[in-house]
Amino acid sequence: MKFYARRIGFYIITLWTTISLNFLLPRLMPGDPADIMIAKLQRNGGEISETTIRNIKLLLGSDESSMWEQYLGYWGRMLQGDLGISVTKYPTPVSELIGQALPWTIILVGVATVISFILGIALGAWAGWKRGTWVDHLIPATTILQSIPYFWLALVLVAVFAVGLGAFPIIGGYSVFDFPRGPEWTWAFFTDAVAHAFLPALTIVLSSVGGWLFGMRNMMVSTMAEDYVTTAEAKGLRPRRILTMYAARNAAIPSIAGFAITLGFVVAGSIVMEQVFTYPGIGKLMFQAVQNSDYALMQGVFLVITITVLAANFVMDLVYGYIDPRARHNV
Amino acid sequence: MIRNGKRRAAVTAIAGASVLALGLTACSGGGAEEGDGDGAASSLRVWAGSQTPITANFNPFAPTVLHGALGPILEPLFFFNKLADEPADGMIGESYEFNEDGTVITVKIKPDLTWSDGEPLTAEDVAFTFSYEGNNPEGQGLVSAEATDDTTVVLTYGSPQFTTEWQRMGGTWILPAHVWSEVDDFANFTNEEPVGSGAYVVDSVTSESYTLVANENFRDAADLGVKTVQYIAIDANQSAQDLLAAGELDWAGMFIPNPDSVTANGQVDWVNTPQDPTVLYTCSNAELGCTGEQTDVAVRQALNLAIDRETIKEKAFVGLTGDISPTYALLPRDEKWVADSANEVSPQTADAAAAGAILEAAGYTKDADGFYGKDGAPIELDLTSVDGWTDYNDAAKLIAEQAAAAGIKINASTVQWQEFSDSRQTGQYELIMGGMIGTTVADPFQIYRDWVGGTATQSTNPVGEEVPAGRWNFSRYDNPTVDAAIAAAEATDDEAAKMAAYTTIQTEIVRDLPYIPLVINATQTFYNTKDFTGWPTEEDLYAFPPSWGSVASGYILQQLKPVG
Questions:
Q1: Secondary structure class of B139 (helix, strand, coil)
Q2: Residues 222-251 of A with CB under 8 A from B
Q3: Nearest residue, CB atoms, B28 vs list A92, A168, A172
Q4: Is the ipTM above a cut-off of 0.95?
Q5: Exposed, middle or buried: residue B200 (CB in 10 Å: 0-12, 13-18, 19+)?
């Protein structure tokens, strides 16, 4: 019990620190949202009259209250679930923007991460089992895929499969032309959304499977040298049973810890992928918020990410104690 | 037993994942096929630069207003074509005239107009608009706005309005008084269901796109060819380019260095309309606190001659830019305002010898390394450009090379946007690659007032202070002769008197070069000529073509006709 109490106390302090940092960091960044917006309009070739400038300053004028007052107000509003109002997407509440983007990100990046993990672990176990055979070639192949710059991989996939072959859509989470009124609960929409998710998911899987595979394969090789595997072999168990029940189960433990953290980061979305595919997700919100000094949006997105990562870690702490008893008892 | 239970769970999980994976692959084929073969759709698909997520905001006073509001839904009184020197075309307005001294504008509007909600649109609405808080009537010096009958409005100002003709007649969105009189806070109003006078009304808005449909109450509703316009949000230029090439996008205004890649499908055509000057900002005025050798006019003149504009155009701007005039006037549009025909185009090739002669005449001597200097200190200038604006970065490098060939040492470096913004605002720089805002009417006045007007014109401030809001004289140029000429031009509508003032201004700035002219930026527009006709073309540039152009985009939509 003491173990869990200590963990919970630790997480509360971490949460407070990160939320406070979250408040502080955007304010340390240079730039004034009003200036940035005016410059953006100018760069876009829009006509900016003195009236427009006056209106922008009126709307985005800097907050005059002291840092401490802002800090207290920030906590007060946050505890009420009010994350403020975005200036780049004025006047949409930040919570609404995040609420709209989150499902897309969680489903796409989440499913892709799970697929990538399962694929990596399965292939890694197999590659470790068959070490020294042709299967070893899997490793350099997947590592190359992983080391290719991510955005470039995405662009190549779009150029070949979407533009060249026309097999997949070029942008979006769904076809805005077929569904101009937005998402709907129909089978046609579902299949359309799945078709749109394929290439983005493929980029994520291709670029991350190598890491899982590599780690798992190496753990597998060292686990195979353990005495209990030799014992199992000596007992005459079927090789398949040794692979799955003895070697792979133990070899996967470190990967599972890494997987939990990765799952936590799923909500951060994938900035590059979302940008290349115009996919409606959290990563892009974060990107735009930083570009435009949109403090409220930045804080909101960081908050969601922080909380999820902490929660994932916490759950992992608890689960880890269960799957690996050594972590519970101080041996 | 425990062992068995766990195993079952693991198997289920793996089975589930593989079903999901299969599902992904199986469904994708069907979905993609449905999306294709939709080229000849009746709705026009536009990208005006919006990024996801889209937020419904049709309030013209909001900085985040959607493009569809400006022109297609709301309209000003008149349409001014910024590409030609021609009279304004009436939208809501029929005609307007100034009184003798330019302080009173009498506007006649078209009769029997209605708003999109069916209410009549009268002169009362126009008068309401001009005195509406959001249009800053006090700031503009409005004395009164009165509707004398149903179709006549008289606007009275405290000062001559000749030079703000476009802002008043072509840049003020006419609002329905019955809606906006009930809006308390004009800046925070989102106007999600806008009532307008334009050809379109809002049909639906989602995070990824918004759709406009024909307004039944529009004055020329019967002639409107395109009934549905869908504005979509795209995050990356590359995606927009891909969609154009795939024939899924009908209209976009964006930079594509190799336009052949999208026109190859035989459906898309493009037009280039250079508009905004690209220049070297120079902090030119030592009296207002500028430091560096560029404060010496001889150095600026020498640099101006040392630059090879042809090479810059070809190498940094892929040959798409226009040639600039040292008067900053846009040619051929503003031809009649250029006093000396020798000032129509800046020298396109470098003349290192002439540059050297200017420096030597000013007392500079060449040192052992071949660089000019005075009193043993060589000229050394820092030229910055914003990191990531690759065309500007390349141009800056070329300029540094070309200047070195003429014996002037320039160090080109890149800075973050914020640093660029701060340094030009406060005047703490030597040279910056920057842009100027081209004028919206065939008259360079606005550039003269906003960019070279001095402290007397309230267009600049000493180094260390920001330039006044809405003015852009980053060079700190402060010349009483120019200021007097600006004041003279502002107060008159007489072409000869204005020309005399411009002659003075041009003589001064062509000699002093507060901004060293480089090129006129390209503005590319891509449109679908297979399914729609009526676009502005090279032969008939009746309106500024990009999809993001306010007013002009609404005007163009009214001229389009679907094919077949």
A1: helix
A2: 245
A3: A168
A4: no
A5: buried
